[in-house]
């Protein structure tokens, strides 16, 4: 009977953790609008998840870790589609319509205006390529790993950093060609993906 009670209690706690994870994901998406309330909620939900994981001694290889991998794969699939959509729009026009325009230095806006359409297209398509690759890596781990652990996360991060394009030498700056934009976009996409994975699973803060 005691064993069954412990199992039932553990299942309920794990369900609670998963509920808070979903709330954290939802509030993170909503916080991108710049709303301080959602940003505060996101911080609170993340704190609750991390505290519960520590208090109840859940292993990162349990269902919690697998769900985090699944949610990150979905997230990077969405990021891929978003970057492809942005590749057809002027970055300068996008920034001009942003609600936080007043906080952007004029010099930065002038630089955006000087970017060629080819460079911008290459940059966003490069980011889309990186996000899709990371989503594929996550999918492979989900399908082929029996127990996902923090070791799996570090292996994934190493795989991202060892990607050949990330290791390639940077194209000479100033050309503003499609190829330069694509290369820089790929590197930026992989770096951003690494930061997000570290923040979401390893709870590291971006510096």
Describe the fold and architecture.
The structure is a single chain. By secondary structure, this protein is mainly α. It has helices at 2-31, 36-55, 63-86, 91-96, 106-114, 117-144, 150-161, 164-167, 178-201. The longest helix is centred in the N-terminal third of the chain and has 30 residues, at 2-31. It is globular.
SSE order: HHHHHHHHH
What oligomeric state best describes the polypeptide chains here? single chain
**What structural class is derived from the secondary structure elements?**
mainly alpha
Provide the gyration radius in Å.
Answer: 20 Å
Instruction: Kindly report the average pLDDT value.
Output: 77
* Poorly predicted residue ranges: 1-10
Cα-to-Cα separation, first versus last residue: 49 Å
Brief write-up:
It contains nine helices and no strands.
Topology:
Elements: H1 2-31, H2 36-55, H3 63-86, H4 91-96, H5 106-114, H6 117-144, H7 150-161, H8 164-167, H9 178-201
Summary keywords:
207 residues, mainly alpha, 9 helices, disordered N terminus
